[in-house]
Amino acid sequence: MQVGYKIATEGAGPKELVELAVHAERAGFDFVELSDHFHPWLESQGHSPFTWTVLGSIASSTDRIGLATGVTCPTVRYHPAVIAQAAATTALLSDGRFVLGVGSGERLNEHVVGTVFPAVKARHAMLREALEIIRLLWQGGYQSYDGRYLQLEDARVFDLPDTLPLIAVACSGRPSATLAAELGDGIFATEADPEINALFEAAGGSGPRYAEVPMAWAETEQAAAASAWETSRWALTGWKVMSELPNPVNFEAASQTVTLDDVRGQFACGPGLEDKVAKARTYADAGFDHLVMQNVGPDQHAFLDWASDGLLGAVRGLPGH
Length: 321
What we know:
The chain has helices at about 15-25, 50-60, 80-95, 105-110, 120-135, 175-185, 195-200, 220-230, 240, 250-255, 260-265, 275-285, 300-315; strands at about 1-5, 30-35, 65-70, 100, 145, 150-155, 165-170, 185-190, 210-215, 270, 290-295. The protein is an alpha/beta fold. It is globular. Helix 2 links the parallel strand 2 and strand 3. Helix content is about 45%, strand content about 15%. It has a single domain (about 1-315), classed as Luciferase-like domain (TIM Barrel), CATH 3.20.20.30. The strands form 2 sheets. The chain has an 8-stranded parallel beta barrel with strand order 1-2-3-4-7-8-9-11, surrounded by 8 helices. Strands 5-6 form a two-stranded antiparallel ribbon.
């Protein structure tokens, strides 16, 4: 079992994000996962620096800890050729510690370039074409591609690592699990749903399975729940809402009916260890073997110190798939 730490790029400025990654390495985490967004979910989060610049700085500031995007949308705001180049460069800078997590994106981040954000079916088709382009460019040499949605003309990534990064595809159902098995090396998920892993395996998938474990650590349960509500209540709106709203102000409005009890139902809140391990166990039992501690408490550095003292060992002891 590998244990990771979610660095929400919406929650801190770029220098502090690097400091958190360095602290996570010192605390003993196996990897860090960074969100890749243009906007924060809520105005109260207050940040959203460029993830790829932060990744490069983390790579040069750490020695051991793995890096992953959780996740990048390589279809609208970015062209997949740019992501193929960025991922290859990050892999080189980190000496092979990088995993490229990809997904079909959210309107919140993709609409900013003025391109129509397509319906779900088209987004999945675009993600397939994007992965085909990335794989093509990682073969080396000049490459071209003429897809229904995406094109590539005489492009070459000159700096490629000897060992290419793994690609983990965000999964929520059969289409994405099939895509992950065909063109990816693993999966990303946010729900403790064994069906996701079953679909991935049925389609021939056999790589690492990443899952984000929601928790909020603080010295009191009340402080933890309040912090989770302040910064992360958007997570309870459901994926159909999360993928479609265009701006933080929309998420402010859509999440106003979320209560503290709702937050407590999703996040393991408070200072205790047992509830955090129990939450992680649900994901391990569902077949995930790379568990990402997604702390939305008020003090990330204090959480990392606390996790080092007991959480890491307890979660590592859980059985993977």
